[in-house]
Design brief:
84 residues; mainly alpha
Length: 84
C-alpha cells in the first residue's frame, strides 16, 4: 500500500496523458464534427494555458518577480497578509 506523502513531502500532481490526435468522427455530421473540433481546440488551449501557468509558478517559487501573476502583478514578491 503506498502513501501520497513520502519522505520528502506530498507527491506533485500528476499530469494526465495527452489525448489522442483525433478520434474517428467519420460517423458524425459535419456540424457535429465542427462542434467537437471546437471543443477539442478549446481543451488544447486550456491545457497550454495551464502548462504555462504551472511553469510560471515554478519560476515564481525560484524567483518571485519572474512572472506576472495575480499574486505579484506589480512584480512585487508576495507579502504575507498581517495576522489578526
Amino acid at each position: 500500500m503506498s502513501s501520497a506523502v513520502g519522505p520528502r513531502g506530498p507527491r506533485p500532481p500528476t499530469v494526465p496523458p495527452p489525448m489522442q490526435e483525433l478520434p474517428d468522427l467519420s460517423h458524425l455530421t459535419e456540424e457535429e464534427r465542427n462542434i467537437i473540433m471546437a471543443v477539442m481546440d478549446r481543451q488544447k488551449e486550456e491545457e497550454e494555458k495551464e502548462e504555462a501557468m504551472l511553469k510560471c509558478v515554478v519560476r515564481d517559487m525560484a524567483k518571485p518577480a519572474a512572472c506576472k501573476t495575480p499574486r505579484n502583478a506589480e512584480n512585487q514578491p508576495h507579502q504575507p497578509s498581517p495576522e489578526v
